UniProtKB/TrEMBL annotation:
Residues 1-25, 72-102 are annotated as: Disordered. Keywords: Membrane, Transmembrane, Transmembrane helix. The keyword Membrane applies. It comes from the Bacteria. Coiled coil: none annotated. The keyword GTP-binding does not apply. Residues 90-102 have a biased composition (Polar residues). This is Transmembrane protein. The chain crosses the membrane at residues 384-404, 424-441, 827-846.
Amino acid sequence: MRIPSQLHRDPLYRRNGKVGTGATAVPPDQSWRRVVRLGVVLALVLVLMRQAAKPVVYEVFFPAQAQSVVSERSPNLGAHTSEGPLTTVEPPSSDQGLSSGQGTSVLTATPFVLDVDQQAAADQQTSSWTTQQATDFLANWLSGNPADAALPPLPADSTETTESNTQPATVYLALACRQHLIMASKDGTVWRSADGPALSATLAMHDPAGSRFHLLRSATPSGQVAGVLPLLQQPEVYRGRSVIAEGDVVRIEQVVASDNPFGLDHYWNLWLKPKDASSRPWLVVVAQLPQEMKGLIPSAAETPTGGEHTALSSWEVKSPFPTVTIHGEFLKRLTYQSAAGPELTPVVAGHVEFIQANGNPAISVSQGSAQRHDDAAPDPKPSMVWIVMAAIGIGGIFSAWVMWRTASLNRQLRKRRSKRPVTLEAGLLAVLCCFPANAFAESILDLLPGFDQSNLQAITWPVDAEPIDVSGLSQLHWDDASLAKLIYRLNRLSDNILQQRQSTSATGSGPHAEIGDAIEIDGVITELKSMPVPDELNDMLELHDLQLAKLKLDDNDFTIVAFEALPVELEIGDRLTGTGALIGQYPEIDVRVAGRLHWNPARPMSPAGDFLSASGVDLSRLPEVAKLDRQSISANDSPVFFPAIGAARRVSLNRESSEVQRLRASVVDASPVDLLKSPSQFTGQWIRLRVETVRATRVAVESTERRMQIGGDEYYQIDAIGDLGNVQLKLEVPDGDPVVMENRYPVTIVTATLPEFLRDAQDDSLVTTKTIMVQVEGFFYRLWSYDSDLMTAHGGKQFAPLIVAGVIEDLSPKSTDPIGVNSIGRVAAFGVIFGIIAVIAFGWITRRGDRASRERRYRSDL
């Protein structure tokens, strides 16, 4: 029986002292061929071992950890012995500089405190500084010299420390000067000479070799993890603010610095590939390149000489790319030339805080040498005894403070209980009776140019000579031209202005409301009539129809209201709400005029419409929202978009309520294809669909009115991907071939609160990237358009369904091993071990049988 070897295909058994049979048989002394084959196998094993020694092979299984490159040092903050109230100093806003003259403060979450008088004196001094004076002050202070000429004489600031000018007022001045220089730079342009002071000053303040670096680092807020898109879309919000930039280094440039008093000869441009899944690169600028990154630069790098902001040397970083974390300030959006044409990128100037090698050999070697150097002189660590004693001391102090605070509150409570009850004097009661609350109603005649009380009363008049007979729409004549002009004027006033002027007491037809007063409108329609706008005013006022309605108020009184015609079919029993102006009073009824009223139908078309109406969403605007399909989000969306986010927030916070349960029971299962085919049919409906999340961006809301509508200071935009199934989409683009999309399509989700499973480890990050399957329930808003790299390359815009989500559920498997990979691995491991044991046993049995066979053959020969 011939059993070939798997290594060299020769038989395992020798015949007649030879290996092989026939012509291929070789003498047993020519075993060198086997040695050559084993040598080849050994070389292959060595090559595999050499490749296995590379750290990048294990990055997938064991990700590299970020290493800090900035030494920790607590600066001598000095003592502060000034008397009076102390306030913590906060950072200046992006729209305020040195010239504002207001109390712009720059420190937060630090041990620095600043006297109110000192802060006012510093602000008064810095309001008169020019750019050159601010630059000279910073250069003088950063060089370690006392800022005696520039520092204003601050009260109660006579106590000096061992380190000169470490008082909070001086640090306040330095950071305010930097903010002033940054705001003086021009946003959205290439580098200009006017940008030099801001760039050089920021780099000098972030130079790790500077004498003030650790002091400024402890006094500056840590910043937020920023993304490229928020900085590009909201530059004025983040200008001058401390941010954290993260990304992979793909290019390093050495740039000569312009003439500056800070002693900077050159600086470094680091082009990063962002970590927020954005395809746009961004630029970070650092004064010094950390020692850990020097391995990325060739040893023969030249010293920079040349013009301003000119990259004299540029090096491409080879894969794998290291990841850096930059702490600095956002300066501006820089215009640069790319392969696709002029582009914008945000510029962050600061210092490198952390480096993650990601398997890059140059970084790994540098970090290893740095660690060995640190191990030679390790920092002393506090003993466990001192840690325990400190913990016990802190706990005792905290307990004593709690006990003292509780006793103090109890004493105050007993004093309040023992006080005599407060009573109103008779004179005050008489004054209140003579001047009731109704008398404080405010008129809006000053907001209606061209109208006074006589003009308003002349808009409508009774048909009969006796005004006592006026009780409905048929008993009044109208001046349609003046009425249309008045409604046009009211439409141009914001709801906040009207509500501030509204007379809360004149809700009915009481005698206290006067002609021209702002008055509340809230009633049920009992009579309805339409009125056309004169043809000569159609185009001028952009009004085509007006509507007249008789409303029954909550106190069983009636009123007649004239308003702009709504784009929906009104019915008897529907409720109209809003704020208008009083223009007529009759014995049985009054007459009011309003601009755009809110419509609450008596018979909502769906539970979703009922819930939106109860949440303050004007359902009459939904047809207008449907007409905005495939357009960007604009101011026309505000009346519905932000209240819809607030309604969805109610769903997420009150899932157990009956109205939310009724809403979720009416959910409509939809797919991206359904939403793309018939978007108007789903507008305002509560839908459900499955998507895969890609990125979540936090969007700040600045308007107070919008914050009240959504119930918070921010909302989140989640970029996701939906499944198209077997459908192929062709998107038409102007002057080009259609763009074909298959299998997947983008979907945009807006939510007031982000679920915990989608949050990043750092809660204050602006952008969170996480890929996970979710099920979304929310109100479908409309199709909206935005810029994307794919559609921009074809000359068009991307459009996608926009959903205001109230419920987001995680669909990822709860098990850590959903497909049984661990079980399969264990079975495979046991199989391999069993196979090895079986091979060893088979070889041992075979050798034993061969030995017995040779012994029998030997005895037979004898």
